[in-house]
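tool_call: predict_structure(chain=1)
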Amino acid sequence: GTITKEPTKDDDDRYLFKNKTLALEFEKEERHHPRNKDLPYGFVRRGEFVGIVVQKAEITEFLEPVIRSSFSPVCADIKSPYQLKDLNAEKWKRVFEFKDQSGVLKQITVPLDKLRSDSKFCFSEFASKGFYFNHDNRSLFFKLACEFAPKETLYYSDKKGWTDDFSAYCTKNIGYSTKEDVRFYLGYDVEGKIQGTLHEFNQSIGRYAVDNPNIMISLLLPLCAPMLALIGHKNFGIHFHGSSSCGKTTLSEVMSSVSACDVSSWRTTDNALESTALNANDQCLILDEIGQCKPE
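tool_result:
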């Protein structure tokens, strides 16, 4: 603000040190509205939005400092829980989480080089997922997205199974590495999960494998599948065939109980089957009902 009257020696000390007084008032305002530590400096979260607090200092006619604050929304609430890097730390990505305009929680992964170098790419990626950002504050949103500093860094892999140098085996978001204890991010979900106990498994499935070669093979196939690449062995398949209701589908379910792969069907398109096979990389691919697929 502008002071039209210079303070005299008879005035209160706060008038003589008006700049310090204003600084204290700003400090009080900051304590009243603390910034969110998971957001870049200068941005705050208010309800379902992220934005900036615009503060304007004014001096009244009585030389009293007044701070007027207003919240300017930049975008909908957004978080960046972690950043990603490949095993060689040459390619980096950043993961963002937010709710689209219909309230559905979404997660996108953006290459860091494109994020920081191409604002149009950044806007397009978020807008295509239904994310809201204030058009008038687009430059601030670009700054927000670029300056996120996630506390956790994960390795990422584009597919399940072994990495190219066989240093880690990736299943879902967890990687088991021979070099160090690392976590992996795959970018998609795998349905498999750990449940039950070994005793329950033996009671419901394992005891039927005694003197039953077909069930033995069904249990061993998912266990040996991850080892083929390690020993340089070619992939192979086993075909169970027989009359209807003789237990072929049951054997498929036995295999599925060991691995994280569901039982899929031969009755599908080429493109869909490629995606199914990718999801079973270095694992056991289980396909049922071969009689329903086209002969060619």
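agent: The first helix runs from residue 13 to 16. Proceeding to next step.
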